[in-house]
Amino acid sequence: MMLNDVRPAIGAKKRKKRVGCGESSGHGKTSGRGHKGQKARAGGSIRIGFEGGQMPLIRRIPKRGFNNKLFHVFYAPVNLSALQGIQQEVIDESLLRQIGVVKGKWDGIKILGKGEITQAYTFKVHAVSASAKEKIEKAGGKIELIKSTP
Q: What pLDDT band is residue 150 in, cutting at 50, 70 and 90?
């Protein structure tokens, strides 16, 4: 097959609907808009949810609840088990991203207590769980909490 033999699949190219081009075309006179009325006029589209002046459904039903997700802080969870064998003494976000423990967009880092830790590390993170704090201090490590900026 040569490049000049390539043709689009049947039905792949659809002709534009030409309206107002004579009665026999099937789209003449009113151009498929029917007779009179708001939808027949130019710019005669009505917004979504408009019910002709009647109180719209979205305003008729009661409003309930509240959420504060806009201000929620999403921490990247890091377990102590993931930190085994790290040679550096100071563990911060840049190091965790460099070794691939933390990936993606997060508001901060939270150290969780799953696993054991033997070496004394200094953690510069945004949050620490109670069990992780206990294990870190037991191993002789320190925790420096960073204030997270959402």
A: low
